[in-house]
Amino acid sequence: SNNFFLLCGPCAIEGEEMAMRIAEKVVSITDKLNIPYVFKGSFKKANRSRVDSFTGIGDEKALKILRKVSETFKVPTITDIHEISDAHMAAEYVDILQIPAFLVRQTDLVVAAAETGKVINLKKGQFMSPESMKHAVQKVLDSNNEQVMVTDRGTMFGYQDMIVDFRGIPTMKQYAPVVLDVTHSLQQPNQSSGVTGGRPDMIETIARAGIVTGADGIFMETHFDPANAKSDGANMLHLDHLEKLLTNLVAIRKTVNSL
Amino acid sequence: SNNFFLLCGPCAIEGEEMAMRIAEKVVSITDKLNIPYVFKGSFKKANRSRVDSFTGIGDEKALKILRKVSETFKVPTITDIHEISDAHMAAEYVDILQIPAFLVRQTDLVVAAAETGKVINLKKGQFMSPESMKHAVQKVLDSNNEQVMVTDRGTMFGYQDMIVDFRGIPTMKQYAPVVLDVTHSLQQPNQSSGVTGGRPDMIETIARAGIVTGADGIFMETHFDPANAKSDGANMLHLDHLEKLLTNLVAIRKTVNSL
Amino acid sequence: SNNFFLLCGPCAIEGEEMAMRIAEKVVSITDKLNIPYVFKGSFKKANRSRVDSFTGIGDEKALKILRKVSETFKVPTITDIHEISDAHMAAEYVDILQIPAFLVRQTDLVVAAAETGKVINLKKGQFMSPESMKHAVQKVLDSNNEQVMVTDRGTMFGYQDMIVDFRGIPTMKQYAPVVLDVTHSLQQPNQSSGVTGGRPDMIETIARAGIVTGADGIFMETHFDPANAKSDGANMLHLDHLEKLLTNLVAIRKTVNSL
Amino acid sequence: SNNFFLLCGPCAIEGEEMAMRIAEKVVSITDKLNIPYVFKGSFKKANRSRVDSFTGIGDEKALKILRKVSETFKVPTITDIHEISDAHMAAEYVDILQIPAFLVRQTDLVVAAAETGKVINLKKGQFMSPESMKHAVQKVLDSNNEQVMVTDRGTMFGYQDMIVDFRGIPTMKQYAPVVLDVTHSLQQPNQSSGVTGGRPDMIETIARAGIVTGADGIFMETHFDPANAKSDGANMLHLDHLEKLLTNLVAIRKTVNSL
Fold it and tell me: What is the pLDDT of residue A222?
């Protein structure tokens, strides 16, 4: 259908019930809209601002929930890894391994992920130019894995704000399929509270601009109760708003395809 | 028609023949596409990097050419002013007075322009937040002139690059109609040569993102021979590419209007 | 004495009494410390965030106060100009004409100032690289005026913060004597209130770093009552703290001279 | 002596001979100048731009060389770790464990390092504000380890440049002793070649500003043949220039101590 694809789910796997509930809803929407869908969930959160932040429910437990989502709804899944030893473990449960933005320069981690043979999603560091992602992609290719994509999650702009540089989308498409992460691109980091802020009112603005400039996929975190999500609540889209947003994006994509 | 409007022309008025030639072509395209059109041309260039850069053909001479374009093609015109004394002079010849980005914090200049009763186009300083344009707009309103619009021409990102922050478009629409300047937003300033560089390959990327995020107008410089234009050649769109670009933007605008 | 020089005074000339009081105090300190001193005061404020900000007591009136300070205390004076017509007027009263940072790319203004034969102080635009100031300096030299200096007043870092790039001091010393403006370098612009904020607690940090990296002069605004100053109160140094700060800077300068 | 301390050595441990040669020279200089000295060397390089960059001579082999340097010259040593499993291993050989800037948000890694009981050196992420390092320091303290310091290695400024924000030094001194890394602060990342560039001509400028604004320590990479160093050659100080630079810094520190 030449539609964009969607990487979507909660930030962290907080439990089976919530994961299944979110997956079911997103599957029903993406089926209707013919959007290829990948369920996203973190099995642990390793890079929190503060030591008392939520870090997960247990690695194996969370990974098994990801597998259950996949088997129940017949959708592929994606999760992020933080240590070399995570790569092999996570690869047994999910279809796509994601390298977090802070870690995309860690050669050993990228190579370990690539060597599992899974699809690799490299997040552009907030401190990296679009052009420099060429070298990150090359590390995957050099590991005999050609299934690699790149996700833009914004670029640091001063200490407490991020901007999406949309020139990066056509630039990075020269190296691999490009996803726009509309959740983390709207973070406002380094807040004095130690809790990252956000601009959720700008999700649709950024998502539309991503589609119209050629993004192959959209990454988005969603929850039926963002205010009580255990992480990243600041920028999550409420599940109730997902269908309208995706409907708009599909319409824009159809127009772009016709140009 | 609820279409976007277009501010377009050469950077500087280099002479009558070139102004008329560009205007005729743009008018024929915008008539076909139902795009409200304003002819743009600078009567002098005051903020060049180097003293030996081209600064104009003479103020009165250039302004008379703007008037001739207006009368010949029945289109309104816009030009930029740099000194308080320019405001009254230019107001006799053109319909819209533009305050350059570097000068938008000069209260006396903004007020002098506003007091002519002409439409005012305030360019967002490269060093200003979208939110801070509220105060610039207020200076026009406080001068009893409600005809004011705001143009984004990018934001400094490091010394030698600019980024368009598309969050700024819905933000500034709270204050006034918003135009996206796709020519100057792609400048790469502070090059060691003293000549500003650019990314003209990104014009369509940036323009599409502007339309899809709600820009009311597009500002663009064009020339039939950008390489030999006397200023800003680095980012000008070749006149031959204008129709295709605008056709694409109109299609996107129609889709956006339907959402 | 090979000491640094000081450009110092209130932001705006609010009246004769306050100007004389500040000058007298600064003169007594700089005489004791053998610091060549130039009295600084703006005769009008043209680039305020909001139209209701204080803009001055009248041009002639303020310029006459600058002359009186000069004659009374035998010190040179400096003021900033914003329009071409200001250049000739101000040159009759002061010794140094300063081009504000927002205006340093306005060729006509720089040339008009240079042609008065006065010393010219070019402030680096917040959006300019140190290297690009070479072209601004060249505009003065090309106007047959070799008396030119450059002042760093910080560089935009995101929308609401500034950083001083100390690499710029040795870089710009290749073109002209370099002054560090420790008042405006600590501004925090684009605050939602429309009133620029600041970090006055960092004045000594920034000033020390300026001296140790080779600044030829220090620019600083001071007041006996910063909280009630009519402009730029956010970063002014209280006059009572000036002597201790300058004493420390002189000690550092002596050490640097000995290396 | 209330002098600053020095973390210094090659970037990577390329072999025993080179490590011993560099250590011997630095020890002789720092002994003369009464500078407390810690020998620095990476036992592996994990975050290279390209997969074909040099990554090390073998972990155990490199760590044993660090121990030999320590025993031979009676100096403490520091090395950086990249994985949780590195923490325990490296702690057997060195005195200080360093968390790289890209990894300082990885809670598990910081906690694993802290739990070894070794001194921890946290590098400020290029994407972090000075204030946000408070949370990173707190993670070490919460692990019952009070021996923690913070190192500034510059802040991203656009894609291809870094700036040192010297306001960060007094800010971070509120949380822990602060070191200025004058080597990596001068990197120019994201170059199109995939090899990070630099500004080694600015080492003394940045180092002086660090000392005068209160840095407790200086971090610097040095080599007797920077052009042929296997990593980070772009900003290394030639070993022949070290004594003169440190002599100047000691003089500045003495003056600062006396203020």
Answer: 95
